[in-house]
Design goal:
Elements (H helix, E strand, L loop, with lengths): L20 E7 L5 H14 L4 E5 L13 H7 L4 E5 L4 E5 L10 H5 L7 E5 L8 E4 L9 H14 L1
Parallel strand pairs: 1-5, 1-6, 2-5
Antiparallel strand pairs: 3-4
Helix pairs in contact: 1-4
């Protein structure tokens, strides 16, 4: 069980700063990555882990839905926008040409409480990974992949 089981918020002074374990779910478009991640998250949660997901998109994307206030703010020219409620936050930031190109490591800092960060994509990265090849090959079961992730966590 990860640091979260110690009650991190109550034990800040004695909590050891740890890095979440990073594992990539990779493959080409429509190879089952999202399906596998959506099966894996509940299994890892059942085992007591806090799981965050960072998705790499090789194309440009729209992070909020047209018609929402945050979308309208961005369309009006805001260089960044945040939305928050009792349950959720979302932050978007427009990149300028002189900005450092974003990468997954920039986003790791957003999830310091996570035990595991799943990356969707990044098939050419050096992270431990599962390559999805659906429909040529069946996806592994969530239990099987969770076992593999736990084994790799022990080896780090």
């Amino acid at each position: 069980m990860g640091l979260s089981a110690l009650g991190w918020a109550e034990n800040r002074e004695r909590a050891v700063v740890k890095q979440p374990f990073v594992f990539a779910i990779s493959g080409y478009k429509n190879s089952g990555k999202t399906t596998l991640i959506c099966r894996l998250i509940p299994e890892l949660k059942r085992r007591g882990y806090r799981v965050a997901v960072i998705k790499h998109d090789g194309h440009d994307f729209v992070g909020d839905v047209p018609g929402t206030d945050s979308f309208r703010h961005r369309e009006a020219g805001a260089c960044g926008c945040a939305v928050f409620s009792k349950k959720r936050i979302m932050i978007t930031r427009e990149l300028e040409p002189e900005d450092k190109l974003p990468d997954e490591q920039m986003l790791f800092k957003a999830f310091p409480w996570a035990d595991i960060i799943l990356l969707e994509g990044l098939k050419n990265s050096s992270y431990p990974k599962c390559i999805c090849r659906f429909p040529k090959e069946e996806l592994p079961s969530a239990e099987e992949l969770a076992d593999r992730i736990e084994e790799e966590m022990k080896q780090r």
